Amino acid sequence: MRGAFALIWWGDRARPARIVLAAVFAPIGLIILAVVHEPIVALVVMPFLSFSFSSQLGLIQTMMQESTPGQFRGRVMSLHGITFNGTMPLAALAFSALAVVTDLPFVMVTCALLYTVAALAVLRFSGGGITQVVADCRTEYERVALEPVPARPS
């Protein structure tokens, strides 16, 4: 929640750096939670973990909404929500089964490592890299913002 609120106060210039930092800090926090056995350490780490995930997801959703024309925004965000929320139960089922066979810390560290590799690969190679994606998103936002919204048929 704090990460999402921070999006309001942050400017647009450092978006790529914030997304990369969140992609690095989130798995570090998850690994720390997997290996510690002290509740006080977990209480200190949880806000950083929460901040990393919520700010990264919030930035990505903001960029999607900014670069989508108004008449398609609802459809695009619905598809995003379906794919994002639709895959979580399947992943939870698979990783729960893995946790039964191994143990929960192993699964948490494995997920953190997979997340790191996938996030950094996407941020580096997808669409020319995150810096290019953010620049393209800004250009598209400026184009979409100037476009008149078509009137709905009566």
Write structural notes for this entry.
The chain is an all-alpha fold and about 150 residues long. The protein has one domain (about 1-70, about 90-145). Helices cover about 85% and strands about 0% of the residues. The chain is built from six helices and no strands. It has helices at about 1-10, 15-35, 40-65, 70-100, 105-125, 130-145. The protein is elongated. The termini are far apart. About 15% of the residues are buried.
Essential attributes:
mainly alpha; 154 residues; single chain
Topology:
Layout lengths: L1 H8 L5 H21 L3 H28 L3 H32 L2 H22 L4 H17 L8
Helix pairs in contact: 1-3, 2-3, 2-5, 4-5
User: Could you give a short account of the major beta sheet?
Assistant: none
Sequence stretches where pLDDT stays below 50 over 5 or more residues: none
Number of contiguous helices: 6
Backbone structural class: mainly alpha
How many independent structural domains?
A: 1
H and E order:
HHHHHH
Q: Based on CA inertia axes, which overall geometry fits?
A: elongated
Rg: 18 Å
Helix content: over 70%
Return the average pLDDT rounded to an integer.
Answer: 83
Approximate strand percentage: under 5%
Distance between the termini: 40 Å
Number of beta strands: 0
